[in-house]
Amino acid sequence: MLRLSRPKLGRLRLSLSKGLHHKAVMALRREDVNAWERRAPLAPRHVKGITNLGYKVLIQPSNRRAIHDKEYVKAGGILQEDISEACLILGVKRPPEEKLMSKKTYAFFSHTIKAQEANMGLLDEILKQEIRLIDYEKMVDHRGIRVVAFGQWAGVAGMLNILHGMGLRLLALGHHTPFMHIGMAHNYRNSSQAVQAVRDAGYEISLGLMPKSIGPLTFVFTGTGNVSKVNFNCFLFCKGPLKHNLRLCVRQSSSRIGFMYLFIYLLIYWSFSTPDLSHVCELVAICDISADTGGSIEFMTECTTIEHPFCMYDADQHIIHDSVEGSGILMCSIDNLPAQLPIESTEYFGDMLYPFVEEMILSDATQPLESQNFSPVVRDAVITSNGTLAKKYKYIQTLRESRERVQSLSMGTKKKVLVLGSGYVSEPVLEYLSRDDNIEITVGSDMKNQIEQLGKKYGINPVSLDVGKQEEKLGSLVATQDLVISLLPYVLHPLVAKACIASKVNMITASYITPALKELEKSVEDAGITVIGELGLDPGLDHMLAMETIDKAKEVGATIESYTSYCGGLPAPEHSNNPLRYKFSWSPVGVLMNIMQPATYLLNGKVVNVVGGVSFLDSVTPMDYFPGLNLEGYPNRDSTKYAEIYGISSAHTLLRGTLRYKGYAKALNGFVKLGLINRDAFPALRPEASPLTWKELLCDLVGILPSSKSDVLKEAVFKKLGGDSAQLEAAEWLGLLGDEQVPRAESLVDALSKHLAAKLSYGPGEKDMIVMRDNFGIRHPSGHLENKTIDLVVYGDVNGFSAMAKTVGLPTAMAAKMLLDGEIQAKGLMGPFSKEIYGPILERIKAEGIMYTTQSTIKP
């Protein structure tokens, strides 16, 4: 026997009072969506259980339903065409719009939760008729796992279908195989007959009746869920002597698979972390149980049907044809597989639905949803009620509007975007925006080789431009654009903003909104444009995560008592083996100067001022989270201003800081003591001056003769460092006491920056990571204090985008796309502090693999 799990028929969840006898009525509607839909949501034994409790069950007659009407009548159902008496109407698939009855509760698979265009007319009619819609697909437990589904039988049917298809395809290739005797799933009365056919094929294989001309066959099963297990168990009946040749592939998102005579059974929906299987060579057949068009199999653009179950994809010609002969890969992607085994599918589905039926029967669609005594499983599956989308599904309307805007754009001219800067952050921005064929991208930079390479890679227009020196060219270029994205150093943003204001072009940047940019706020408003800053990581995602938490707290009447946020871009632990425990992927100047800046924060109601420079080390504290990373942190900039920006004046603690590995701050403090972190002009390092070694420079800084011996210099530096041997070792390791020439620069910090960029850059195959920890103290109206933490940890990709590039570039690109598509309507100068901006971005970064976790503890 094929071992399939079958839930025990449980008790209904609510107790029935005698006074409700025959007062609540439910109905099973006739399925009329297509000729093959022979399932029902409940089997006769489920109907019997419901009628025994005193409820009235109407059965709409159907000559197509696999379980005969008389079986339902025997179980206590009442056979009649008119089901208008019912308050709850159950079906499997969507009913025709013209057959909907107003102010009823319906339950079926609506296929509306992704704003599927084909079903938006149905959704509109449901809203118009004030129907309460319960979607089986959204009936999930506390872990988000579906509790009502046909999935198991989709796996069985799909397995039978593709084994049959393999027989046809191999025959077309000149090989008769035992698979020819396995039929399509609907040819069997039940699964037992189907399993016997598979066993028979396996027996023939064990007798050696597979043609030797084929060679070994390789089968790949993707996914690890119940459907995958059912498919694999079914397959075991026909493996015969192939058991030693069977190869099970462990999937990784970076893997590409290729074998001779390969068959893939796809049992997973695609996401960005799912392996792309469309690059497989020598494939014979693919069965996509998920029927996920454009998913893991990119060339699977349409589902097949039970009437026409197979098609062939010719990779050479990039065409799809119906014949199983000729060149190509056999495809089977039927989207209603359980309908091929309708009786067992009905019983299986009904077993899972049955425990929730009584509370659904008692649903009164004329009353507010909030007044209904639903369990979380049912309540969270209510898509519409009382003429509106349920709160959890309001996003459907947003998705519809977004799609309509995109469609409108696609019918017109392309949107033009100018990206200024070609550094490492720019590439994720370009990659993301280039996915949309309706966006024409121009990248402007003075790095000619970089922009030419980017132009070839992403099909964009490279333009040589030095923003600081070619203002007229910048203005002319901006005037032709719909949006400008500035990824330049922050000091150039005001210059770019002025050009955007003059041409009334929207602008986006990942950097801080500086005082110089803030001065242009009135001009931005007068121009009627949108300028959004602070869209990267820090600032950027830190703001968005904070505002999401703060807004949710305010919705329930809670107040924020404390907020701390630490963030850092770091090398992956295995690549942190240097005195700074740090590496640079761009100019270190900003990082070095950061420790020279003052910082202000609020701690337990008191304002704390930190003086940068030598005393910077006093503000560094060890972090007690992620202990394996051995982190330290220090405050940066003015944290107190966020009381107003975030709207949390109630907070007694406000601190935003930087994370580093322990030892970083002490090493940098040594540079401060030596006078190396200094932006004053240093003529001895200019191009016209004589070459200078680091040893000679250090001799000058510690006040000894340039000709001094190394041990004398070492002793003088040790004394200058206050006898700190760790700081001395860091200086030696970095070659600051040696004979290497100091880079030409305008200042000491610029020279040190160039030196560190060369010494501490990422090597081939080395990864970075970003770590963010937000901590909130939230006081609830009940008086309880919630301590909520948000953790964001992202690793870079080997030979791909760095973690910093992804977490800065992708949110910036997403905001740009939203602005182009009209999702952001606000005008003026702003950060990502409104739900209109942060909400969609926090959802969309998940699809790009940028995941964050939250945890809360409650104190009385």
Automatic annotation (TrEMBL):
Keyword Oxidoreductase among record annotations: yes
Cross-referenced InterPro entries: AASS, AlaDH/PNT_N, NAD(P)-bd_dom_sf, Sacchrp_dh-like_C, Sacchrp_dh_NADP-bd
Span of domain Alanine dehydrogenase/pyridine nucleotide transhydrogenase N-terminal: 27-157
One GO location term (cellular component): mitochondrion
Sequence intervals crossing the membrane: none
EC number: 1.5.1.8, 1.5.1.9
SMART domains, per the entry: AlaDh_PNT_N
Primary localisation category: mitochondrion
Alphabetic keyword roster: Acetylation, Mitochondrion, Multifunctional enzyme, NAD, NADP, Oxidoreductase, Transit peptide
GO BP field: lysine catabolic process
Family the entry assigns: In the C-terminal section; belongs to the saccharopine dehydrogenase family.
Oligomeric form and interacting partners: Homotetramer.
Task of the protein: Bifunctional enzyme that catalyzes the first two steps in lysine degradation.
PANTHER family cross-referenced by the UniProt entry: ALPHA-AMINOADIPIC SEMIALDEHYDE SYNTHASE, MITOCHONDRIAL (PTHR11133:SF22), SACCHAROPINE DEHYDROGENASE (PTHR11133)
Name of the protein described by the UniProt record: Alpha-aminoadipic semialdehyde synthase, mitochondrial
